[in-house]
Amino acid sequence: MKHIARKRFGQNFLTDQTILYDIISAIAPQKGDVMVEIGPGLAAMTSLLLESLDEMHVVELDRDLVARLQKQFDPKRLHVHSADALKFDFASIPVPAGRKLRVVGNLPYNISSPLMFRLAELAPLVQDQHFMLQKEVVERMVADPGSKAFGRLSVMLQWRYHMELMFVVPPTAFDPPPRVDSAIVRMIPVAQPLECDQLLLEEVVTKAFSQRRKVIRNCVAGLLAEADLIAAGIDPQARPEAVPMEQFVALANVLRQHRAG
């Protein structure tokens, strides 16, 4: 029976075979990989990944699709977790010594940003991540300082990952077609991120980008002084989008010193 895509789950199923093979080629699954797919849907990517893997895990919220996956695949090869990816404990997946998780997925647009922040907490457990997201979101993730797309998402993720926009996927590759272009992003955790308290960095970055048209001195007023910006190597007259990730980290460390002292 044909599964009808559900709007509340943000379901758009990838059907273009050429693009599917391009994605699998980018992921390059190898035997022994501990692969987990978020939102396998109708298993278009799952089936191709399993051709190269001994087994894999999938996290699916839609119970109808969970039942379909359990019926379609050998449970010894496909471990189906019926769960919300925003709440699922990825650390519960068994990983042999010396290996890390490889995470993939065609992510619903409505949860992409919160899921990125959720997964960032697991970065030390992860080898790499390959996701299909709304193109605009990927552009924000990989944006360079000085561009209009550079913002909170850019800083928080670039602190934890090396990221690359692999290629763009048009709406015609999906059923039903979304209204926007998508893109594949590759995310490789930084081995040793700059030392920083994540909550303080998020507090600083959220405050800095709350009023993008203002200079950063005005944006962080009440949280940090002009002297703090200068101590972090930041021009107080700079716009927030012109400040590199490294300087935001330095600013968060200045804030940590204030709070500790």
Please characterize this protein's 3D structure.
It catalyses: adenosine(1518)/adenosine(1519) in 16S rRNA + 4 S-adenosyl-L-methionine = N(6)-dimethyladenosine(1518)/N(6)-dimethyladenosine(1519) in 16S rRNA + 4 S-adenosyl-L-homocysteine + 4 H(+). GO terms for molecular function: methyltransferase activity. It is found in: Cytoplasm. The protein folds into two domains: 7-189, 3-Layer(aba) Sandwich (Rossmann fold); 198-260, Helicase, Ruva Protein, domain 3. 35% of the residues lie in helices and 20% in strands. The protein contains ten helices and nine strands. It has a seven-stranded mixed sheet with strand order 4-3-2-5-6-9-7. The protein has a two-stranded antiparallel ribbon with strand order 1-8. Helix 3 (63-72) links the parallel strand 3 (56-60) and strand 4. The longest helix has 16 residues, at 245-260. The protein starts with 12 loop residues before the first strand and ends with a helix.
Placed side by side, the strands forming the largest sheet appear as: 4-3-2-5-6-9-7
The fraction of residues in strands falls at: 15-25%
**Quick check: average pLDDT?**
93
CATH class of the largest domain: Alpha Beta
Please provide the ordered H/E string of secondary-structure elements. Answer: EHEHEHEEHEHHEEEHHHH
At CATH level 3, the topology of the largest domain is: Rossmann fold
Summarize the biggest pleated sheet. Answer: 7 strands, mixed
Question: What Rg, in angstroms, do the CA atoms define?
Answer: 20 Å
CA distance, first residue to last residue: 64 Å
CATH superfamily of the largest domain: Vaccinia Virus protein VP39
- Structural class of the helices, strands and pairings? alpha/beta
Overall shape? elongated
Q: Report the total helices.
A: 10
